[in-house]
Design a protein that fits this description.
Protein name: Glutamine amidotransferase type-2 domain-containing protein
Pfam family, one: Asn_synthase
CATH topology of the largest domain: Rossmann fold
Number of helices: 18
Largest sheet: 7 strands, mixed
Structural class: alpha+beta
CATH class of the largest domain: Alpha Beta
Keywords: Amino-acid biosynthesis, Asparagine biosynthesis, Glutamine amidotransferase
Oligomer: single chain
CATH architecture of the largest domain: 3-Layer(aba) Sandwich
Number of domains: 2
Strand order of the largest sheet: 22-21-20-19-18-23-24
Distance between the termini: 21 Å
CATH superfamily of the largest domain: HUPs
Strand content: 15-25%
Shape: globular
Number of strands: 24
Organism: Xylaria grammica
GO molecular function: asparagine synthase (glutamine-hydrolyzing) activity
């Protein structure tokens, strides 16, 4: 993962402030590099020294390959093509990527020997369309005379754009500069390009905005495609059907999820400056809910047994609740944070993982955030989420921000709360998130409502809407928040191949709101995932309710001054990473 910044301008300054440079370094602490290109004005004009300048800056968080791949990647110093790459290419044209993905992509982009601008443009777009994984990029192709930029189909990495009022300057960046006005999120629904070829032949004013083109992810239009990835299976179930432990889809799910996890948890480099005696390279954003607990359990099957796995669980102080407990001591919990629903489910799932996988070194990190500390970081969090600025954005961002910081109370052998546990910070640079499972497997309450109103047809329509909106789920915002701490979040449920499997599977093989399946009541929502959890010896997680109950919501209701979403249930927040 990296921080990237690029400016196309007639000015002699890249516009990269010291503050923005530091923000980019926070994202990629292993390397900082810069490159520059110039396009002269070739026609006689009033300003004979007028040039179009391209400034590129990249920082690197090295997580792929056996060396730090310094960026920006250049054809040769000072001339030729340039690539700023932020992300992970797991596959190119269906083939797994070995070694450093940024270097592989740059080499593939450069592999065309044609001197034709049109042929080169087609080649570049074909390569970019063939990449699977989370990414954002800026690529200047010298032969095509174009700057290409964009984000992956699901928008899993951040890229912002700002155009000057004079339209003679366009800036692209992983994160906004201060002042933040004027920045917009680059849409993830296509690959964008800027044609620079006419610049040197124009004696009149040149507007960069007039030369921006959006190129579709798919070369042929298909209204049935969801998120430009696959076609949703709209088949209705046969008269008699059941989703239970004998269903073939159960073993297919396990295989597909393991295949998604493999590139995300294997061959992760050892973090530099690690202080623990145990090797921690992977951490799971962990509420103890179904989605993240299944990921933790399957990660155990893949990660070498001599490595530990961190489970990061966040709870916020609620001053309203603290004041209430002071007046009514009988309501007081042993610790104010222990009353938060996610803390309770997190500890239960931690105990279940320890029991199911006794040979693994599990470490539960209880991140407790006092009200005053949250407020002290509010300005920074607001700057990171820009251009998003709603209370809901801030609510989610607070949780992600302190989770990614990864500092909290350590629990290894002891499951229950202790009065003075040691404080630790995870050394893991890779975070796993369970986001996406609810959309794919019918995990939200509205999915059950859709079924009750419209049967399987209504449920299918609702799921298609949810999956189609993943690219607009503000994952770029989440990337800006978590990457601030020099960590990369990975989404196994949003792997392209896993998504294709999930949306091509009949809906009755994923959830079952029609049949009341029993063994000790496994809920219909996300039933296939619940069956997998039970098969993995996680019976409590398999039966974990998605929604917080009314009492939990009341306990977690925010006080004045907090963004209201912090204490909403996960159902209300509409995200499932913890």
């Amino acid at each position: 993962m990296c921080g990237i910044h690029a400016t196309i301008t007639t000015l002699t300054d890249s516009g990269l402030s010291p503050e923005l440079r530091q923000s980019l370094i926070n994202r990629g602490p292993d390397h900082l590099g810069e490159a520059q290109r110039e396009l002269p004005c070739e026609l006689p004009c009033a300003d004979r020294d007028r040039r179009l300048r391209l400034y590129f800056t990249s920082t690197v968080l090295a997580l792929r390959g056996d060396h730090i791949a310094k960026q920006p990647l250049e054809e040769s110093t000072g001339v030729g093509s340039v690539l700023c790459w932020n992300g992970e290419a797991w596959r190119i044209d269906g083939r797994p990527v070995r070694g450093n993905d940024g270097e592989t992509i740059f080499s593939t982009l450069q592999s065309s020997t044609s001197s034709s601008r049109e042929i080169r443009d087609v080649h570049v777009l074909d390569v970019l369309r063939s990449i699977e994984g989370p990414f954002a990029f800026v690529y200047y192709d010298f032969v095509a005379g174009r700057v290409y930029y964009g984000r992956d189909r699901l928008g899993r990495r951040s890229l912002l754009i700002k155009t000057s009022g004079s339209t003679e300057s366009i800036t692209l960046s992983s994160i906004a500069s201060v002042p933040t006005d004027g920045w917009e999120e680059v849409s993830s629904d296509g690959i964008w390009s800027i044609d620079l070829n006419t610049y040197g032949n124009m004696s009149s004013e040149f507007s960069l905005e007039d030369h921006v083109t959006k190129n579709a992810w798919l070369q042929s239009s298909d209204d049935e495609m969801v998120s430009s990835i696959g076609v949703f299976n709209k088949e209705l179930p046969p008269p008699k059907h059941a989703l239970d432990f004998s269903s073939p889809s159960l073993q297919i799910l396990r295989h597909r999820l393991i295949e998604s996890l493999k590139p995300r948890v294997l061959n992760v480099p050892e973090p530099p400056n690690a202080t623990s005696d145990v090797d921690f390279r992977i951490a799971i954003l962990f509420s103890g809910g179904l989605d993240c607990t299944v990921l933790a359990r399957l990660a155990h099957e893949l990660v070498p047994i001599d490595q530990g796995l961190d489970l990061i669980n966040v709870a916020f102080e609620n001053p309203r609740q603290v004041a209430l407990e002071a007046k009514q001591p009988h309501l007081r919990a042993s610790d104010t944070y222990e009353g938060c629903p996610d803390r309770a489910t997190g500890r239960k799932a931690f105990a279940e993982l320890k029991s199911s996988c006794p040979g693994r070194y599990w470490r539960f990190i209880a991140v407790n955030v006092p009200f005053e500390e949250a407020m002290a970081h509010k300005t920074k969090v607001l700057s990171l989420i820009y251009p998003h600025d709603t209370e809901m954005d801030l609510s989610i961002a607070f949780a992600l921000y302190f989770a990614a910081r990864g500092t909290g109370d350590r629990y290894v052998d002891q499951i229950e709360w202790q009065p003075s546990p040691p404080t630790v910070s995870t050394s893991a640079r890779v975070l796993l998130s369970g986001l996406g499972a609810d959309e794919l497997f019918g995990g939200y309450a509205r999915h059950e409502v859709a079924f009750k109103r419209g049967g399987y047809s209504g449920l299918i329509d609702e799921l298609i809407l949810d999956v189609g909106r993943i690219g607009q789920r503000n994952l770029g915002r989440d990337d800006r928040i978590m990457a601030h701490w020099g960590r990369e979040v990975r989404f196994p449920y949003l792997d392209e191949e896993f998504l294709k499997f999930a949306i091509s599977s009949p809906v009755w093989e994923k959830c079952d709101f029609e049949n009341a399946f029993h063994p000790a009541v496994i809920d219909p929502a996300k039933r296939l995932l619940r069956l997998l959890a039970d098969q993995l010896d996680l019976p409590i997680a398999a039966r974990q309710k998605k929604k917080a109950n009314r009492q939990d919501r009341e306990r977690n209701r925010p006080s004045q001054g907090y963004s209201s979403g912090i204490y909403m249930s996960r159902e209300q927040l509409n995200y499932g990473w913890v």
